[in-house]
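Late entry, written up from scratch paper. The run itself happened at the end of the previous shift, but nothing got recorded in the book at the time, so transcribing now.
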Amino acid sequence: AFHCFDVDLVAAMTDKEAEALLAQGPGAPSGREAIVRNRAKVFSVINNARAVQTLRTDWTIQEPRSLCALDDFLWSFVGHKPHVTRVKSFTTMPASSPAAEQMSKDLKQRGFKFVGPTMCYSLMQSCGLVI
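Output as recorded:
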């Protein structure tokens, strides 16, 4: 649905392509990925891909081991090292952190959409920035 999340291909998507995704009903043709058909979220994927393109040109890589500007940018919120969270059980796992709140604020200033602190913390956990 989103060109396997290739940033440049998604950023080049037109409103017409986004509208076509929204128009596909639950019985989409075989082989088509199921997506959340929320207009704001579909258009935010395209917007965020364009914001990543801008980040690529605006961000100066700080850590030589970084793979790309987005990688370096995200890791900068934890000092380029995984942050180990000490919790006794999953029931006490926080839904956010000061680093996630700062990441959210910075991403929003850069024009990203749907990037609240909880989503950022979840991203940090899934990418290994927070363990």
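The radius of gyration is 17 Å.
(Scratch paper discarded after transcription.)
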